[in-house]
Structure formats: structure tokens, C-alpha cells
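Record minuted for completeness.

…
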Amino acid sequence: MEYKSIKRYLDIISATFGLIFFLPLFLIVGISIKLESKGPIIYKQLRLGLHGKVFTMYKFRTMYLGAEKEGVYELKGDKRVTKVGRILRKTSIDELPQLLNILKGEMSFIGPRPPLTYHPWTFPEYTIAQKKRFMVLPGITGLAQIQGRKDLDWDRRIEYDIEYVDKLSFLLDLKIIFFTILKVFSTKDNLNLSETAKKKEDYPYIKLMYPTNDPKIAKIAEDSGVDWITIDLEIRGKKERQGHLDTLISYHNIEDIKKIKESISKAKIIVRINPMYHGSKEEINRAIEDGADIIMLPYFKTKKEVEDFIRYVNKRAEICLLFETPEAVKNMDDILNIPGINYVHIGINDLSIGYKRKFMFSLLADGTVEEICNKFREKGIPYGFGGIARLGHGMLPAEYILGEIYRLGSSMAIVSRSFCNVHRKDDYEMIEKIFKEGVRDIRRFEDELRKKDYRYFLKNQRVLKAKVAEIEENMKNPIEVKKEDRLKEAKNKRNKRYSYCILTTMSSSIDYWIKPLLPLYNKQGFDLTVICNMTPEYKEELLKNYPYIKAISIPMPRGIDFFGSIKSIYLLYKAFRKGKYHMVQYSTPNASCYGAIAAYLARIPIRLYCQWGMVHVTMKGIKRIIFQIIERIKCLLSTHVQPDSFGNLNYCRKRLFYSKKKSCVIWNGSAKGVDLDKFDIKKKEIYGREIRRQYGINQESIVLGFVGRLGKEKGCVELFEAFKLLEAKYPNLRLLFVGPIERADTINPELMDWFYKNKRIIKTGKVSDVEKYMAAMDIFILPSYREGFGMSVVEAQAMGVAVIVTDIPGPTNGMIAGVSGLTIPVKDIKALVAAARDLINNEEKRKKFGYAGYEYVKNHFDSKIFIKKLLKNRILLVKGCYKK
């Protein structure tokens, strides 16, 4: 389902809850307005809405009565604004009544702000292009509002509004909401988040060209904003010239032209042929026939070579000359007089070799490139020079090179191969992310450059010269990088440690799920950070036992807490930005929600959602819809989703929570496997006797077992009601209840009173040696309404215990129905009683199920095998990542 079709439903749900939630605030604000000045609480104003339709917009009144008669303007310290009004405007609370406009279908939470019917223009006075902003419902906040609306003229506001219409998506809305909230509490008025920040001048961006022969990467580059895709056929003499350098040499072939042509639609194909030789004519003909738009001639030296080249092309494609020899520069005046040249480019890598410079950008620092560019400019031929990496990357950061490109009037640049340097060349998801962010950053930087005056460019030139001088001084040999340096770099790459952050809500989750894996992650070269809501004492103990990790305590409220949730997301966002993690893993309902949003906004490359259960599956009505939407948001914002059972995997794929590509189950499921050294079936008899003796359970008694927290969703109501019926028939029956009593309030008091008073129910509380208690059980029961996997089911079988579970995803993936246990419908007391009777009355069947369960667990859930596969998965995920 497209986002546009569900946006209205989200608006209605959110506005309804917003009105209920903010009702006390409405009353306080209304009283405050009335006490300070005469007039209505709500200010009504006619605005232009969807398709230019006029509607009445509501706001809390912030000005004295009749103030609008003095005109439309905003001044600091405007005396027309009341004292209460200043507070309302500063916090944007004055916009809250527009929740009513949302319910009426006149507005949305996110969209272009509705203008007045007469200011800046009436609807007919907007141009056709500008009217595009009226194609969606107006919003309480929008893209222009998070850019600093007071600093924007109307043309810029409309540009942002049109951009929003073009790029409307759930993720964009989520980003706008987040930064609107930040903006309310921030003194900064401009957060600079737009995808485009064009000046009014109609000044084109520089042409970007990227070399690749991979059709998928070519398409990604084109979609990201690369203008030309380069097929590099040059091999003649190139290895001899550049083989000693730390540069990549392309090995494209002429067949690649057709493949790239078929994969792209807008970008031009520029083919860099070999220097002129006896087969040049055939090579040029083939390149043009296969779809080349531009033919580039490299490494020429004489005027005749260029004349022959242009004659062979014969106006069938555009011409680009690559000046990269001192001889070509020397003969430049004669060469540039040849008609038919469309573009020229300076290949400063080879040219620096020809001039025997230490560093290729030495030519940019010493004025050589500037002299050549001046010649090009005199001839009126579009020109470019050098290559650029991502912003902040490269020996000489791309920012300085872009500054020179703009100072010298260059109109094109090669995007260097290091721009998208990933370990796995088929990791297209990562490549797409790098391209989109990298090209966008370049375009944003260009927007900033357009605003600079000459003083900035002179300063940039001075800094660049100093940087180049520093690089030259540190280079051991001119141009050549010594072999030991390359070996050292390769070793550093092998020893590179990846930043891995694990997020969960409670410290108990760390104890059970995370702690056993920490030493193994550290051994594999991960720099680990653990984030949860932990006490100072717990944090101190954690760091003492695991000194190689970092621990951060961030409060994460359980349940529904709007302001607490916003605070948690903001704190996580700051922690993620500071940590610059390669991968963030999150699990548990609330932590995964906060973590997914914060990690997405912080642009963490790998966002891993460990889906260990879904809360919405047991809900009904509007509550189910809301929590299902939240689950979809978590999955959407994550780059990878790993359920702990195939049941949940298939459930979510079938309902389009996520695709097959971004989801998987580790081995056969679970979150960590079963430690068969701890759950040692050989010690079953010893453990069983010990526990029965400890709690006074007769060896002849039949023990039903349950492991987990007490609560309705765990099926405790059905378990207790079933035990009531069973104990009446079987006097020697006992119920061993192992786990904390956390959610007793979810069960009716009468049943809980019976539970506490019943002496046949042994209540152990939380225990650390659960394997001993399972050894004392004859039948393990898990009547849960929902589970991620149901680890206790697998652990019980590891101790040779027959199991009864509800027929839901998770538990049924950890046993074999009819072989190692029985399944029953959810909330079915009669079925539970019948299944229990079946096993109580048949000792041989219990033993048969127990043995089969042990064999199944041993072959499918051994933690030693599981952890190996888990570590392999984590290593594969982070390989190819990069620190921003």
C-alpha cells in the first residue's frame, strides 16, 4: 500500500490521540488567554488549502483583538503580541487547535503551510509550477518550517514545499516531525535539512562522471545524480605509467557499453578509449555503434593525433580531450583551435607524473592547473580537472578541491573510484546508500559555495597550498608509495575494528541474551557499546567484568510515554552520532522503536532489528492497528531484520512487513541457542531429585512446569484454570511455577488469591539455574498468547521434558508437534486440560516425547554451532561499512 493512501488514516489516529492527550493543556491555555486579554480563545483565519480551496484555520489567539488590521508583518518585540502569545509562539503551542482541522480533512500533520488567501498572492496569481504545492493537504509543519521560515523569502518557501510534494514519503514525514520537535526546543532557526538548497541564480551544478562497468552501480549512480557514466577502455601504456601508484586501474571492455546503455536512461555514456594507435578507428566506430554519447581521447601529445581522432568520430558523438601530457599542454594553443571540441579535461594524475611532481594535486597548488584553465576559458570550451572523493575523505579532502573547481570556473569533475570503496562489490544496498548520501553532500556543498564571496576562495586556495605542501613533505618518494607502506595499510585494514552498539531496554536482557556473547564479539574485533536503562551499580559491575566494552545508561520508559519516548530517541540519536557506529542492534518492543528511529536519523549504516516477538498480535481493534503501524515503522527504518523464528519470519513476509532481501533467521532460530553443557541431560536425574527434595515434592508426584514471568499474555489464566480442573482428578499433581511475579495486575484478583494460597503450586521466583528446575518437571507447559521464539520450550526439551505449547509462531518452531510435544489453540482451557491428561496418563509417551525433543534440540539448537553462525552473520553485515 502506498504511503499516500495511509497518510490520512495516520493523521486521524494521531490527531484523535493528540486531542485527548493535550486536552488539559487546551484548558490551561484557554484560561490563560482569557485572563490576559479580551476576545476569543481560538483565532480563525481563512487560508488556501488543497487545490486552492479556502478553509478556516484555527489557532490559539496570540495577539490583542484587532491587531490584524495593522497589516501582515512580523517584528521582534511586536507589541501586538500578548505575553501568553509570546510563549505560545515560541513553543508552537498556538498551532495545536489545527488538530481539529486535521480531523475535518482540511489539513495534515506534515505538508506545506497554508498561506493566507491574499498574501503573498491570491491563488490565481501563483504560477502553474508554484501551484504544485497545493497538490497535497497543507500541514501543521513542513519542510520549509524546519529550514528556518523567518529567514526564507516566499520563493524559497515555495521551493521547499514543491520539494516536499515531489519526495513525499513516510521517512521524510518522520524526519520532519523529529526535527520540528528539536526545533521547538532549540534556539537555532535553521537546521539545513533540505535535499536541495538552490540559490535563485540559475547556475548549474558541475557535471559528475563516475567510472563503472557494473549496470546496477551505473543505475544507482544515475539515480543519485551522477551525470555521466564512464567506460574506461584505456589499457595501452597505463600500467607502465601508473602501476607503481596507489591508484585503481579499470579493466573495462567494449562489450560493457551496451550493458550500461540498457541500464540507464538519463545519464550520458562517456567512453575513454585508448591513446591513438593503428586500431583506434575500429575502436571508436564500435564504441559509437554500441551507444557512446561522448568519446574521450587520453594521453595524446600532438595536434595530428587530435585531428585524426576528431575525423574518426565524424560528429557522431561529442568530443572530450583529456590533457595529461606535458607535450599536449605545450601544444595547447594549436590543439584548441581545432574545430569540433566539445569538452576538455585535465588528467592531473598522469600530468603530475609527466611534470615529475611528488603529489598529483601539486599542479593545483603551484598554479599549473589555473594557467591551463585560463586557456580553456579563453576558447570558451567547457572544462574540468581532477577527481573528487566523498566530502571529508581523500588525502586532500574533496571540500578543498571543490572550492578550487568553483574558483577556476570548472564545469565538470570525475567522481573517483574511492568514492564508493566497499569490500563487497555486490553489496548494492550499501553502494546505493553511499552514492545517495555522497552526491547529496556534494550538491549541498556546492549550494554553500555559491553563497561565498572571493575572500572565501582566496582563503581556500591558501589552505589548499598549505595542505599540499604538508602532504609533499610527508611523502617518502616522489609519486611512488613504498611496498612496506602498502603492506602496512593492508594490515591495518585486516585489523580494523568495527563499532558495534547493542541496545535493549532492561539490564536483565543483557544478563540473559548479551553477556554470553560479549567475549566472543571482542575476540572477533568488534568495539562494543551496550546501551540500556541501567543503574550506576549495574554499569560499574558490567564494566568491571567486561573492561573492553563501553556502557551507556539511557532511560527508556516501558509502556506508552510520549514525552519520555521523545527524550529517549533524542538521547539515543546523540549517542549514535557521537559513537559513529558501523552497526546498531536493537531488540525488545520499546528499545527497538526508539533505536530504529534514532539510528535512522543518525544515518547508522547497518540498523539491525532483532525481532524477538511482536506485541500487536494479541491485541484487537484500534490498539492492534496502532501497534502494528509501529512494528512496520521499526521494520521500515531497519536495514536488516532478524526474527528468532521461521514462524514470525513467514508471518511478517506474508504481510509485507519486510522483504525477503532484508530479513533472515540465524540457523534454525532462537536468539542464542541452547548451552548443552549447562542443560546437560546426563544430570537430569540428579538435578530433578535435588529440586524435588528442596521443595518437598514426592518422587511419585507428576510435576507440570512453567518458566516465565506471571502475566495474562503468558497464558497464566488458562494455566491456572486448567490446573484447577486437573488437581481435582490427580491428587499427586504439582505445578512448578518458575519466574518473577511481575504482571499480577493483569489477572483477576480472585484467581491470583487462589494462586497464592494453593499449596500444590510451588512458586520459586526468578532463578539462575533454571535447568535444575526443568529437570524436576514431567511436562513443560507454555500456553502463551505470543512469543518471539519461546526459548524455554527448547531448553525444557534439552533436559528431556515433553512439552505442551500454544499453536503460535515461535514456540511451534522450537518443537515437533506429535513427536516431542503437543500443541493447543490459544486461550483454550479445555484443549490444555485434554493435552495435559493425555501426557499425565501415559508415562511412556512422556518419555518418548522427551527423548525425541532432546535429539531435536541437540541437532538444531546447539549454542556452539549457533554462535558460530551468528558471529559469521555479524561479520558479514559490518564488512564494507565505513565510519562517517
